[in-house]
Structure formats: structure tokens, C-alpha cells
Amino acid sequence: MRRAAVIVGWVLALTLVARGVGARELEVFETTLENGLKVLLLEEHKAPVVTFHLWYRVGSRNELPGRTGLAHFMEHMMFKGTRRVGGQAYSQMIRRNGGRDNAFTSQDYTGYFVTIAADRIHLPLELEPDRMVNLLLDANEVERERSVVMEERRLRSEDDPTSALYEEMRAAAFKAHPYGSPVIGWMEDIQRLDRPDLLAFYRTYYVPNNAVIVVVGDFNRAKLLPRIREAFGKIPRGPDPPPARSVEPPQKAERRVALVREDAQLPSISIAYHVPTLTDPDSSALDVLEVILGGGRSARLYRRVVYEQQLALNADAFYDRVSADPDLFSLYATASPGKAVAEVERALDAELDRLKSEPVSARELQKAKNQIEAGFIFAQDSIFSLARQLAAHESVAGWRYWKGYLSGIRGVTAEDVQRVARKHLAAENRTVGVLVPGTGSGK
């Protein structure tokens, strides 16, 4: 029954999109406190719940060589206690009151969130200002957490051949920009980070003028805003954090890396192209191109390379437009047993060549746009997803890029898709990573 309901929901959403009925207008209130803290409030009264997000505009993009992993390590330490609230007490207080909390680190930002009953909003208003200012960063806790972070890196990256290939491919794709380093950091750097590194990072980036609060849910804005001012307004503004100055130079020739792993069962390939971010007009067409290539089993890559040619077990595309600096548009596939990865690469290239030489049909274009719009609308049904959308856009470029997203998608033409494919998915602009099982034969 649940699956049937989901299918009916998707059909309804796609029908509404096809008829030109978009998401309802959401009234986002924006203000900035005197100390520079940005506040975005969005009332949603469908359930007595609120989600409170506090994001800092700092991620691996802001790290220096030899200090990778600082932003992620700092995220862990934010749960290790202040002068007023002991280690583990933060999460225990939230969960005893029926809420959930967590955090995440990306290339561009670090986000902390609490989702809780609306009448418990006082908890994040009490706890978050405290750890913005009074974090202990106990030396013993730093050492204990270092082991946790190192084990996390082993599990997520070093013991996973696909993740290890992704790291190697990104490191080759970026020669100057910190996007070439993993968010979790290189193991050698994690081993050397110490309390003074973390303290300097905390004092530099965890200041109100480098943060944004986003609250979505069942509250009254006129009552909540004064409480936010009271809780956070007394925190003094910090010095403006240093800007991330690294700029990736244009790539002029294809780069290739091969990773031989005894624990890999099948060869796989990842092909990445440098592309612009959401502030560039091309980003909307790149979003549509991603769905045309990799938007499910009826999309071009899966239909052609997996289903018809039976060369790969999977084939997909990925583009994350919400980044502070230009990032990558990626294709990836895992070869079927007995198939050479070179065959898979040729098949992926053939699909790109077809896109560049033949405009997509009106039906295929509209289908991709409908998928994007339906997904965007469905995400807004969750107050958490809605808050995350707002916070991510605000952190990298401003939340109004989120507000204008659908109009950009609706305006994409077949000519736009063909143009961005020719412009950005060029041979000299790509980095190819190949995972080779065992012997290095590539088969």
C-alpha cells in the first residue's frame, strides 16, 4: 500500500508539473542581526514540529595543505561539551525531549540541526549559542575523537574501492583548488591535527557573522524572532574569516588515473568534467543534462549501456550545482562480469557524442524537466529537506537562487542542453578514473 501511495503521489506531481502547476509560494523571512548572524524563518503549520538549523560557512574548501580534515574534525568536537553542558549531554537532552539532532560537513559548509516538537524550541535556542562561544575542546577528547575520525575514514574511503577511486579521481581533477582534497581529510593530516589547530579554526570560523540560522515549522515568526535575538544577539561579531582564494586553472588536457585494488570485484570507471556552479546561467541546462543522462532506468546511460548493450551493471550521472566554486559533472559505471572497462568507456563516450550532435527530443526534454520539478516539489513536503535546501543555497550564494530554481529549469531548451554538453563535456576538460581489480588488466 505504501509503494502504491508513493507511485500515485509521483503521478499526481508529474501531472501537476505537466499542467504548469508549480510549488506554492513559500514566504521566507530574512533578517541579519547586528552581529552579522543571518536568520531565515519559514512558517509551516502542517504539524507541531520545527527544524532548527545552524550552519557555518566553512568546509574543506577553507582548509590549507597539511590541515585537511579540520572542518570535519571540528564538527565532531562540537558534540564534546562546553563549560555548561558536558560531553554527550547535548544530544541526550535533545533525545530525551523526543527530538533528533545531527551534523554534516561538506566542501563549503558545516551544518548542525535539531528537529523537535514545536514547544521544545527553547532547547536549541539555549544550546547552540553556548557551543558557538564556550566549546571546551578538551585535549583528551581531541585524542579520543581522532581515533573515531580515523576509523570513519578507513570505513568510508580506504576500505571501499569505489570511494577510494573517487578520491583519486578528484585529486587528479583539481590541481590548485581544495576541492581536490576529501572532506574527511587525508589520513596523514588527521593524524597530525591537534588542539591548537582546532582552537584556531573554531575562533576563526565559528562566529555569528559566518553563520546562518534557518528555522522551518510550526512557530509564530513575531514570537520566535525576539527569542533568537535574545539568544544569539549578545554574541560579539568576530573578525571576518579569510576568504578562500584558490582558483582552479582551466584544464587543457585529459587526465587519467588507475587504481588497482585486490578487493575490487569488478572494474569501474568515473569520468568527470569541470563545470560551473549555480551562479552561472549554464547550471540549469547542466541539471537537465544530468537527468537526461542519469535520471533513472529510462535515462540514456542506463537504457543504452546497461539494458541494451549489457556492458555495465549500472551507469549514472551526477551534478551538484549547489557549490561555492565550480565543481564536477560526473559519469560513472561498473562493468558487467566479463566486459572490459574500455568498452564501457567507449559506450559512455558514444552517448555524449550523440547528445552533442543530435538535439534531445521535445518529449525527452520535458520528461527530464518534469522529473526535476516533481523532485523539487516533493522535497518541500519535509520541513527538514526544505530547511536544508534554504541553508545550502544561502551558505554558498544566497537563498534566492533556491527561489529562482524552477524558473531556470523551465526555461531550458534542447539547444541549451546541446550547447552545454559541447561546451563543458569536452575531452580536454575531463579526468578519467579507472578501478582495476587485482592484476591491473582492466578486465
Give the strand line-up of the largest sheet: 1-2-6-3-5-4
Rg is 23 Å
Number of helices: 17
Q: Give the amount of beta strand, in percent.
A: 15-25%
Give, in order, the helices and strands.
HEEEHHEEHHHHHEHEEHHEEHHHHHHE
Largest sheet composition: 6 strands, mixed
* Distance separating the two termini: 43 Å
Given helix and strand content, the structural type is alpha+beta
Helix content: 40-55%
Q: Which blocks of ≥5 consecutive residues have pLDDT under 50?
A: 1-23
Overall domain count: 2
CATH class of the largest domain: Alpha Beta
Q: How would you briefly describe this protein structure?
A:
The protein is α+β, with helices and mostly antiparallel strands and 443 residues long. Helices cover 45% and strands 18% of the residues.
Question: Can you walk through the features of this model?
Answer:
- This protein is an alpha+beta fold.
- It has two domains: 24-232, 2-Layer Sandwich (Cytochrome Bc1 Complex, Chain A, domain 1); 255-437, Metalloenzyme, LuxS/M16 peptidase-like (Cytochrome Bc1 Complex, Chain A, domain 1, 2-Layer Sandwich), CATH 3.30.830.
- It has 17 helices and eleven strands.
- It has helices at 2-18, 70-77, 89-96, 122-133, 139-158, 161-173, 187-192, 195-205, 221-232, 282-294, 300-308, 341-357, 362-379, 383-396, 400-403, 405-410, 414-424; strands at residues 29-32, 38-43, 49-56, 100-105, 110-117, 211-217, 255-261, 268-275, 312-319, 327-335, 430-437.
- It has a six-stranded mixed β-sheet with strand order 1-2-6-3-5-4, sandwiched between helices.
- The longest helix has 20 residues, at 139-158.
- The chain is globular, with a radius of gyration of 23 Å.
- 43% of the residues are buried.
